[in-house]
Amino acid sequence: MLNLEKLGKGIRRGNITNYICPACRNDDNGDRRGENHLGVYPGGKFCCVKYPNNKDHNKRIVELVGQGDDTQTPHDTQSECTVQQNVRVFPDSCTSRLLPLYDYWVNRGIPVEILRKFEGGYASANQFGGYYVFINRNEQNQIIGFSGRLVLDRPKKPKWKHVGKKTNFIFGLKHTKSSIMAKREIVLVESIGNFLSLFTSGIENVMVAFGISISTKLTNKIVALNPSKIIIAFDPGAPGQEGAEKTKAKLSEFFDEESIEIRNPKDMDLNEMLLKHKEEGIREWYENT
Length: 289
Hints:
Number of helices: 10
Order of helices and strands: HEEHEEHHHEEEEHEHEHEHEH
Low-confidence stretches: 69-85
CATH architecture of the largest domain: 3-Layer(aba) Sandwich
Structural class: alpha/beta
Strand content: 15-25%
Helix content: 25-40%
Largest sheet: 4 strands, antiparallel
Shape: globular
Number of strands: 12
Number of domains: 3
CATH class of the largest domain: Alpha Beta
Radius of gyration: 20 Å
């Protein structure tokens, strides 16, 4: 068991209490900002969402804040995190054939400089032929997948296509984390297109759910970021509303329900809002809804 007094002040999220992870804080590359990575569950189980199922990390936590002789070993420590450990990594050379053709997104209101920031390009052949492809990287800057938006008129093809395990994707965090931490707020959207529309409008504290449900990986990352407020902004219509309600219920296991707001646009998605009402319309929706 862990000595909760050694952990200091925790933040109660449903049936879980989050603390600054002592192993992260004391690491050579320590978490000096003190993100609340460590979740402690009823009965004593615990999990660092930054290093889930890592026995050495669990052992270090026990060494730092365990309760003497009855502390758990990494082998009997039960992690509540269920994150895919073996993630396929793609070589950077996979991106060499992506062409810097940005017309589709520029016509959707997204500036070229923002498209370049988030990496990607048009694929003229292979499985992504006819798609504009975005690159998904992990926190080690390795490529773990691709997300393509169909930009040609091919009705039989899906609008979005993903290669790699989509539930492991956390898009663009290196460009949004500073804003999320400063505002202590996350706007959660369905797609990269909506993400880019907010970012273009100066709303940079945004994350992508890649659909109308939220993965365990993304949930863990949101818990680690420890926002004071979460805005769910899925697309209008019944599927988006149902997905938003289920996502709120899942996040309510970690955050106070009052801190999670469903704010789905009523008549159009966020990219359509950008096209019709420009950046000012997006900001008005964000600030005044």
